[in-house]
Write a structure and sequence with these properties.
alpha+beta
């Protein structure tokens, strides 16, 4: 497994490439603008063209440095986990030695960039001890009864049965199973991944009472890859031991897009998650003309805003979900000179609607742009130079878009 780490030199070239795409009307506005236009320029943009160019380059360099550091941290974390199977720890429980269990290839591939970007060393999903003891299975009964009160519990654990991932039972197991007299089971349901770390009640079955022993609560967390980790503690008495439900082995085979479900808590199946498809559409216009440089056009007339992704106060669009979006924007020029409207995505000028009129006439320009956005991506329109005409009865200065694929 490897990573591509871009060099700073490569990205500086990319950053300069972005800067060179800035419209030529910036330079022309400084030299040839009227006094009114020059005043607006000075008020809105203080730094010079050279300073602006360098600022963009330095910003891109800084972003790349942070990205390089993040990738290096991810690489070191993955190398550490993949090599952890070669390490041995002196901790023992019963007669079985415990060692950190390596993550499977499917689990590693299921991580998204959001997971790896926020993966701390103390996250129990990546730092746990394997507990693979066949006597803990719900279908196992032994003459020698085990007691987890004698174990030295420390940290987080993940349950296995002969190398296959499973979880604690949510249904009362029979007495004298799980290698003990009173098997311990989870008296409440497992958490969802969005719940994070939760506290769950544990009960011990004895003398036809599923909760005859109310043991000390434990902490549980669901991890990406359909598995759980547990922070086990010493039970209240002997002979009690934590159970591993062999019926949930199927849960370890569920895909990222599936959930492990059961009606009777005995037969478990992988079921595809229901994805709620979002509808996102918006259409906005401005009922007045604008002149000169406007950092963010104030589209005050919003006629369509399905999904409420367009902010009527800031005049910006913020992506509510990760997906492919398509935007369109336009301008109408009625006097001599050029007019440039730019679509700005996450701080970068990515597409221009350009018009140039050499005689007293009216020319319109409509531009479309398709891009991939993560949740929270910010989009707006800026007029870099020129004159855009509109009135209350027209829709000549517009901005709109839709979510094409989630």
């Amino acid at each position: 497994m490897g990573f591509e780490i871009w060099t700073i030199k490569t990205v500086v070239v990319m950053a300069v490439g972005v800067v060179t795409m800035l419209p030529s009307c910036i330079v022309e506005s400084v030299g040839n603008s009227s006094s009114t236009e020059l005043k607006l320029w000075d008020f809105e943009v203080k730094p010079s063209v050279t300073q602006t160019t360098l600022a963009v380059v330095y910003k891109e360099i800084d972003r790349l440095r942070r990205e390089q550091a993040t990738i290096r941290q991810q690489q070191e974390a993955l190398k550490h986990m993949l090599s952890s199977q070669k390490k041995e720890f002196p901790m023992t429980i019963g007669s079985t030695a415990l060692a950190p269990y390596p993550l499977t290839t499917q689990e590693i591939e299921s991580w998204s960039s959001e997971d790896t970007d926020s993966m701390p060393n103390f996250d129990p999903c990546y730092r746990y001890t394997v507990l693979d003891q066949t006597w803990r299975a719900t279908n196992t009964s032994t003459k020698h009864k085990m007691c987890d009160r004698n174990a030295n519990w420390k940290g987080w654990y993940r349950l296995f049965y002969k190398g296959k991932s499973l979880q604690m039972p949510e249904r009362c197991p029979p007495v004298d199973k799980c290698g003990t007299h009173a098997p311990l089971w989870l008296a409440s349901s497992h958490p969802r991944r969005s719940d994070g770390i939760v506290s769950r009640r544990v009960c011990g079955h004895w003398k036809k009472q599923c909760c005859a022993f109310k043991s000390t609560p434990i902490k549980v967390k669901k991890c990406r890859g359909n598995y759980y980790v547990y922070q086990f503690v010493k039970p209240t008495s002997c002979h009690l031991a934590y159970c591993a439900d062999v019926n949930t082995i199927v849960c370890g085979r569920c895909r990222r897009s599936e959930s492990c479900v059961s009606r009777d808590k005995i037969s478990w199946t992988c079921k595809r998650k229901k994805v709620i498809k979002r509808q996102v559409h918006f259409f906005a216009a401005i009922p007045t003309s604008i002149t000169g440089k406007v950092n963010r056009i104030k589209y005050s007339s919003v006629t369509v805003n399905v999904g409420h992704a367009f902010n009527r106060k800031t005049f910006t669009f913020r992506a509510p979900v990760k997906g492919i979006y398509q935007f369109f924007f336009s301008t109408q020029t009625t006097s001599g000179g050029k007019t440039d409207l730019w679509l700005v995505v996450n701080g970068y000028w990515v597409s221009v609607s350009h018009t140039q009129v050499t005689s007293p006439s009216s020319v319109g320009s409509l531009r479309t742009y398709m891009t991939f956005l993560r949740r929270g991506g910010l989009v707006y329109v800026t007029q870099n130079c020129g004159n855009s005409w509109a009135n209350a009865a027209s829709s000549t200065i517009i901005f709109g878009g839709s979510l094409l694929s989630q």
